[in-house]
Amino acid sequence: MSAAHPAADSPAPAPAGESNPVREAIEQAIAEHPVILFMKGTPEAPACGFSARTVAALQALEARFAAVDVLPDPRIRQELSAISNWPTIPQLFIDGELVGGCDIVTEMYESGELAQALAAN
C-alpha cells in the first residue's frame, strides 16, 4: 500500500465555464461585503498569527468587516486563490478588490493608507 500524494487529496478548482458553487459563493460574498477578510479562524479566535495581525489592524481602525474562515473546507482556499491569483491567507478585499495579505495590510495600516481605503468605501 502506498501513501497518497498530499495534492491528490485536494480537489482541483473547477474548469472555467462549469458550475462551481464554492467559487460562486466566494464571488458573491466579495460582491456583497464592502470589506471582507478571508482568514484562518475567526476574528474572535484567529487560527494563525498572520490572520490575527490582519484582524488587529482592522479592529484598531474600528473597521466593520465580514470574515470567512477558510479552514473548514479546503475548496474555499483553492477557489479563493484561483479568483485572486494570491496564494496566501489572509486575503483582504475592499470594494471587490484584493488589497493583499498580512504584510501589505500591516504596511498600509502603519502608513495610514488602510484607513484611507476603508474610509473611501
Topology:
Elements: H1 21-32, E1 35-39, H2 49-60, E2 66-69, H3 74-84, E3 91-94, E4 97-100, H4 102-111, H5 113-120
Parallel strand pairs: 1-2
Antiparallel strand pairs: 1-3, 3-4
Helix pairs in contact: 1-3, 2-4
Tell me about this structure.
With 121 residues, this protein is α+β, with helices and mostly antiparallel strands. The chain has one domain (20-120): Glutaredoxin. The chain is built from five helices and four strands; from the N terminus they run H-E-H-E-H-E-E-H-H. Strands 2-1-3-4 form a four-stranded mixed beta sheet. Helix 1 (21-32) crosses helix 3 (74-84) and helix 2 (49-60) runs parallel beside helix 4 (102-111).
In a nutshell, what does this entry contain?
The protein is α+β, with helices and mostly antiparallel strands and 121 residues long. Helices cover 44% and strands 14% of the residues.
